[in-house]
Task: structure prediction
Amino acid sequence: MAQSTTRKKPVGKMFFMGVISIALYATLLHKQELINSNFAQGGLYAFLPIVTAFVFSYFHGAFTGHFWTVLGIEAAKKKKEVK
Amino acid sequence: MHDIATNFINLDAITLVYLFGVGFVGGLVSGFIGSGGAFVLTPGMMSLGVPGLVAVASNMCHKFPKALVGAIKRAKYGQVDVKLGIVLGISAEAGVLYGAQIQENIKKAFGDAGSNLYVSVAFVVILATVGGFVLRDAWKTYKSGNMHAEEKAGKLARWVQSINIPGTMVYFKALNARVSILFTIPLGLATGMLAATIAVGGFIGVPSMIYVLGAPSLMASATELVIAFVMGLGGSFKYAMHGLVDIRLAMIILAGSLFGIQLGAIGTTYVKPFMIKVVMGLIMVIVLFSRGLMVPVYLSQLGLIEKLGDTTVKLLKNTSFAIMIFALLLGAFIVLRAMWQGKQAEKLLHASGALEHGEV
Result:
């Protein structure tokens, strides 16, 4: 049974992260005016875009990672040790 | 700084797709060689009507989260030296600030055309020397047939590793050696200055880690992502304090580039290390021609040569941008092709293994 060695694909995780990612992007695009007027105020408001970037990278980063895994695109199995 | 927000462009569907697409290809190349996707994004955004500084700021704000995701991915493959990345990243941050200051002074003294000329000349000179060297080295490896051989530190790197300056020595796992930080500081500074000038510090960062410090190509390109993160985070904060980051642009580019960077990082596990040098060298040399074409335009704007006609200027600008996009697409194509071939070879290996064990 060659299939028994195949790892389970993270379909559930991909959907979960995907939904959050889509929600984040939908909010970003639907509240453009509000976001622009607050985020571009400068000074301490600088934290807003920085924190946003971290939040998006966490959820969207996890989603894109799972996305390629689900598609079967993963790192080479017989990888040479890189030292 | 409230007026900046009114300069933020309207986003329509075509713009979204365009930014996503450029982000994806840029991310793919960055995931593979550690940087290199960003140089198309600033002019790409400006062509949409985004003011120059907002384009630079938004580009930087997409770069640091992208680099973070890429660095984490490649760390899983054992390719990242976090300590080296942070040490170089901190001095690179100082380089960015200094480079930006130089830019500002040139702009004050010589105007936009002077500043553009400085950027283009920096592009041409650095890409010609470093890109030519990297490409020549990759070619020599290819000709020698030693593509599978483990990379060894070159003469310069061995010398750097042999110098012992008490009180400044730090062990780096990528080099498997102790190196004085008096060597890493100028390299970081140069990387940061280049990032501030042409948006891609990696064109100095990666080759310097390989040839000056003696890091293997895969580790150098992966560690560059840590440098890009440190540099990008500080730079983004500085721009955000002046209200220059258009977070919508940054996050849409990030949407595409995170798909790309994951793929590029996976790609590094399928290729021979010298392919990093091939892709990096090729992109550098092609981009050099792209920027070279713009030199006469700026020279004419400064009145240093005869004034060029509007049609000629437009033609040169469009050709230059097209060549830049070609460089990025070629890089992406090589990465995808190498990955495809690696995947096929792996499948064949598995099939022959299964045959030997009588599973088929």
Summary: The mean pLDDT of chain B is 89. Chain B touches chain A through 53 residues (CB under 8 Å).
